[in-house]
Design goal:
single chain, 246 residues, alpha/beta, five-stranded parallel beta sheet, four-stranded parallel beta sheet, 11 strands
Amino acid sequence: MKIVSLVPSITEALFDLGLTENEVVGRTKFCIHPQEKIKNVSVIGGTKNINIEKIKALQPDLIIANKEENVKDQVEALMDDYKVMVTTIDTIEDNYYLLKNLGKLFGKEEKAQLYNLKIYDVLNQAKLDSPVKTAYLIWKNPYMTIGSDTFIHRILSEIGFQNIFRDKTRYPQITTEDLADADVIMLSSEPFPFKEKHIEELKASYPDKKIMIVDGEAFSWYGTHIAKCEQYFKELLAEIHMMQQS
């Protein structure tokens, strides 16, 4: 079976489950894991601007898309000629069934189950002792954060962070003043590439708050990725624990 993946984290999951470059024949330019495998896979554009002609040239048996990451009109255009699987991943449970279904589809049930068990294990072990009020920023100019109906919110909540924007939905715009209630301000490494200079900008308004860059992949990449974040979460929570004690 020839597959085109329009979703970076699903591309990673397909290879983690044991598929090869002969099966995963197309990917987006944002599909960057696993590095040694994806370099041999044809790039068919970005997640929001796929090149339909390039996809047609690959003659895929299956295209895997995501409701949030891909553009509806582009995905629907592909549906005229190809079998398209559209995923929606908002919860840990959604992620469980994504891996379960991919495992079943490609005869990799055992590997899928091992990854699911590992993900639950990682999330169960990474727990703060008490909730920490947190703002998680994904964009700048304007600042944007995450509401309670997102996968990022679920991961944050699972390990003990309390999203101060949990009464909002999807990815609302906010102002610097809206961050006042947060004990910790997290600046995600993606989709906006926050850097140290952005910490300094916010420090001007909030000199006493903990402001930090966090690995966006650890919070937003569904599929198999969280299974690899055990050490990252441990180090992150240790840093927060030190903050609480000081």
